[in-house]
Design brief:
This protein is mainly beta and about 140 residues long. The chain has one helix at about 35-40; strands at about 15, 20, 50, 55, 60, 60-65, 75-120, 125-130, 135-140. It starts with 12 loop residues before the first strand and ends with a strand. It binds zinc ion (2 copies).
């Protein structure tokens, strides 16, 4: 079995995305498994991603994503002024794990308002376990 680019070079494996044989040189970098360069460059969209073209200070105004990056196998991270995803970082973040000024999530860390299973907010926290200036929750620790 030879590389699909270099017909005379023995392949080291099959790309796990397009199933083509790749030699050592054609294996994409930064991937924990065998992925060819073509697939690293144009990552097939698995899951869902939406990024608004409007940006504020280099951050997309809205970034919504779900699923896993097919190359790195890491969950996608939504990062934006408004961020929604499995993991979200932003001004307003809604996610399984959310970090931001206003956050809603399973684990929520917010500067002003945090709502979540475990909520940690400098401002207002509401959650199963809440820590904040004003905290409401099963176990609440408040600072006033
Ligand atoms: Zn490939
Ligand atoms: Zn090759």
């Amino acid at each position: 079995m030879n590389c699909f680019v270099h017909e005379r070079t023995a392949a080291v494996g099959l790309c796990s995305l397009c199933q083509r044989a790749v030699c050592r040189e054609c294996v994409g970098r930064d991937a924990p498994r065998v992925v060819c360069r073509t697939c690293v460059e144009r990552r097939p969209i698995m899951g869902f991603e939406y990024r608004s073209s409007a940006t504020i200070a280099g951050w997309p105004l809205i970034h919504v994503c779900a699923g896993v990056d097919p190359v790195t196998m890491r969950p996608r991270v939504a990062k934006g002024v408004i961020a929604i995803g499995n993991v979200a970082i932003g001004g307003i973040a809604v996610a399984g794990v959310a970090c931001g000024l206003v956050t809603l999530g399973g684990v929520s860390v917010g500067l002003f308002l945090a709502l979540g299973g475990a909520a940690l907010g400098a401002g207002l926290s509401v959650g199963g376990l809440a820590v904040g200036s004003v905290a409401f929750g099963g176990a609440a620790i408040g600072f006033t």
